[in-house]
Write a structure and sequence with these properties.
Length: 205
């Protein structure tokens, strides 16, 4: 039996579908309520405003990142694990890439300073969840460097992804592969070619 989306999910889906028609800036929650044939107050009981709807959309990407990994994932090199996890984020949002870009633009709009701090914290949380999902367990200065590097890489990849119309997001995947290889070479120069514990397969049998 197919899973039936609850109202929270349906609100997000309806908002995205309408935004594809009128743009995120032109979207109004009353139109979402009309599309779903529910009172506007019912929408308010789940989402305080459109920014909260956008946050719910981005939480779906977090959930995609944290889905169970494929078999043998822990034995892969760190850069491959990062690529898999990060692309899950982009793949989860790809169906509404243009609207996602409009959501991000609304969050950094000069007249919306109340959105800036939450956006920074959400970026930080995204990187922390990325590290968890990619099994990155470095400590101390190495962890700090990883966090800075991953934050830069994620932001740069988002900027490219927003205009990536290639089949299967091939440009984004290739860009991410190349930048991760560059980062890996840099880490080897700084820390040596030791294999991090997270990339070492556990005992079998």
């Amino acid at each position: 039996m197919a899973h039936k989306p609850n109202l929270e999910q349906r609100i997000v889906d309806a908002a995205l579908d309408l935004a594809e028609e009128v743009g995120w800036e032109g979207l109004r929650l009353r139109r979402v309520a009309e599309r779903l044939h529910v009172p506007l107050a019912e929408v308010l009981s789940h989402y305080r405003d459109l920014d909260a709807v956008a946050d719910a959309w981005f939480r779906r990407a977090w959930a995609a990142m944290l889905a169970p990994p494929p078999e043998g994932f822990a034995a892969l090199p760190a850069e491959e694990r990062i690529h898999i996890v990060m692309m899950r984020w982009f793949d989860a949002l790809a169906e509404h890439r243009r609207v996602t870009g409009e959501m991000l633009s609304a969050k950094i709009y000069p007249s919306h300073p109340h959105h800036w701090v939450p956006l920074v914290f959400n970026l930080s949380r995204t990187i922390q969840w990325l590290r968890e999902a990619a099994i990155l367990d470095a400590k101390g200065r190495r962890r700090q460097m990883e966090e800075v590097g991953l934050t830069w890489l994620f932001a740069a990849t988002v900027a490219l992804w927003l205009s990536d119309g290639s089949p299967g997001q091939a440009r984004t995947r290739d860009f991410l592969h190349r930048r991760l290889a560059d980062c890996d070479r840099l880490m080897v120069r700084i820390w040596g070619a030791d294999t991090p514990p997270a990339a070492t397969p556990g005992p079998t049998g």
